[in-house]
Amino acid sequence: METLTLPRGGNHRLSVAPMMDRTDRHCRYFLRQISRRVLLYTEMVTTGAVLHGDNLERFLGFTPAEKPIALQLGGDDPRALAACARLAYDAGYDEVNLNVGCPSDRVQKGRFGACLMAEPARVAEGVAAMRAAVPLPITVKHRIGIDDRDRYADMLRFVDVVAASGCDRFTVHARKAWLSGLSPKENRNVPPLRHPEVWQLKRARPHLRIETNGGVRDLDAVDAHLDAGVDAVMIGRAAYDDPYLFADADARVLGASGADARPRSRRAVVDAMLPYVDAWCARGLPLPRITRHMLGLFAGQPGARAWRRHLTEETRAPGASADVLLAALARVPDAVAD
């Protein structure tokens, strides 16, 4: 499969959000069988894990078939961020993204994530250091605000300070984050969505690349946000719960034509995963580490429950292999699979 890369500036229109315990390399490979062009992200990885961990492949490993792919970093030390960006460049990543949106207590104790919205100059230093280190798009994913600093003017000031350092794109989760009182899960759902303020940001700063994120469930919503003027849209949980929503994305959103525009059937997606599954099982990887990401392939379709049940129950058997996927597929009506 031909790989795609990003030009400086991160010129894309649709991405899958970085999600902890979701967007690992197996999830990304699976999603790439559905869309060749959507931008994929790693899970957030801290600079400390990259620089001081004992298994760099665990944190940075990916296959060329996953491209275009962005590495999301968590950290606040410009030197450490620059060092990680160099490793990302050497590994072949297409973009480095700085997490300024995660509100978890663990992340706050490390002085990164959403709490950095209170320190835009520190974020700008990190972005500048990474830009000086590598010729990759350096981007920032942040919230619309934090705690009581959630006025539009607060977000605009944050963006202006960071933009001066050369940030290539701002991905705005259109909810504020409460740094105390709400869990990370509640921070994804409880604060109301405020997408119009992201649209307003793009109108106010038309020279900046602005991406919106939060509550986007399908391509109709993607079209609506693009029509509102933003440069790109990021989809989070829906991408995991219903990954086949990206089947038409390459043609509808990302400019594919000809053979590249034809979506793969769900059966073809499963068939494309079989050699990958066999290769990893031969290396000793437990099959559920891959198939857990595939449970939503038939979401909303006849046979979806049978597909999920078979994968959930049978992949844990000793010696389980790619044949389990074929057996699960046989429980789905042909009209749905094809």
Structure description:
- By secondary structure, the chain is α/β, with parallel strands linked by helices.
- It has 17 helices and nine strands.
- Strands 1, 2, 3, 4, 5, 6, 7, 8 and 9 form a nine-stranded parallel β-sheet that branches.
- Strand 6, helix 7 and strand 7 form a beta-alpha-beta unit.
- Helix 6 runs parallel beside helix 7, helix 13 packs antiparallel against helix 16 and helix 15 runs antiparallel to helix 16.
- The radius of gyration is 20 Å and the shape is globular.
- The two termini are 21 Å apart.
- The model has no long low-confidence stretch (mean pLDDT 94).
At a glance:
Helices cover 41% and strands 13% of the residues. It is built from 17 helices and nine strands. Strands 1, 2, 3, 4, 5, 6, 7, 8 and 9 form a nine-stranded parallel beta sheet that branches.
